[in-house]
Amino acid sequence: MARALVALSLATVAGCASTESAIVAPPGVPEQTGCDRVNIASNPWSGYSANVAVVGYLLEEELGCEVFTHELSETASWAGLNDGTIDVILENWGHDDLKKKYIDGQKIAVELGLTGNKGVLGWYVPPWMAKTYPDITDWKKLNDYAELFKTKASGDKGQFLAGDPSFVSNDAALIKNLKLDYTLVYAGSEDKLIAAFRRAQANKTPLLGYFYEPQWLLSDIKLVHIPLPPYTPGCDADPDTVACDYQPYDLDKIGRKAFVDSGSPAATFIRNWTWTNADQNEVAKSMTQNGLSAEQAARKWADSHRDVWEKWLP
Q: Residue span of the signal peptide, if any (predicted)?
């Protein structure tokens, strides 16, 4: 989607006049300016929404920024850095190809450091299945259980349930290259994927699917990860021949170079911002399960973690 949403109230803070001499930034360091408009990409999963909620809330409340969020796919977010409609991506999952294009090649984007979140992508089953069929967590045995996973959507093969088609995924190639008797079926969104795993655990129905961490659902249902052939650097370089597990990710932040070079305090704040999987899951669960708005969830987290976020301020 390329639809822009105003996510939070548009607050501004007036600067104070001073008779003292201005402090000049050292050579190579942008002079800090006032915080004007900040355009943040919003990708379609709840953990990312938690990032946007807290970062946007604090940018407005503490720095007086105007925060706009834009609901986009991951690839479209990078394109937004290029055309100037996006200033920052708050949670990047790898995308070495896009880094090569926009950071190394066109030089319109820069890395802003790690978020502190540890990302895991992979194949999961509900816990009741791992208990009932202990060897189902051995990927080499998955064909023995393909019959269990058949659905109307998968025909004469087992169903492998994926999430949003825009998510980072090697699943179609993995099924083919590992010679598994499964068909890829998309749930369509993170919400539908979560609902499917909830139903599978509650009703003890078979389900094999794509899932990831950080994700608040794992604090409620301990989905069981199925290790695939071990990841080694470069084993996934060719998306058509990949036959290894997903790489573990140290998630990072990407900024539009012109925005970062502008001296905006928002860029400094975002560079300083780091938190944990537990922090993200807490806010995401407040928003998705406890009925809080993004602003309410962000305020709740900020009120109880002042010692954490004060370190992010410029």
A: 1-22
Q: Where exactly are the structural domains of the chain?
A: 3-11+32-117+252-312, 120-226
Tens of pLDDT, residue by residue over 56-87, are 999 999 999 999 999 999 999 999 999 999 99
Where does residue 118 rank: exposed (0-12), middle (13-18), buried (19+ CB within 10 A)? middle
Domain 3-11+32-117+252-312 indexed as CATH 3.40.50.300? no
Task: Give me the residues paired with residue 12 across strands.
Answer: none
Contact present, 116 and 274 (Cβ < 8 Å): yes
User: Strand 158-162 to strand 182-186: parallel, antiparallel, or no bridges (unpaired)?
Assistant: parallel
Class of domain 120-226: alpha beta
Strand stretches in 6-108, DSSP E? 37-42, 66-71, 88-92
**Crossing angle of helices 277-288/46-63, nearest 10°?**
100
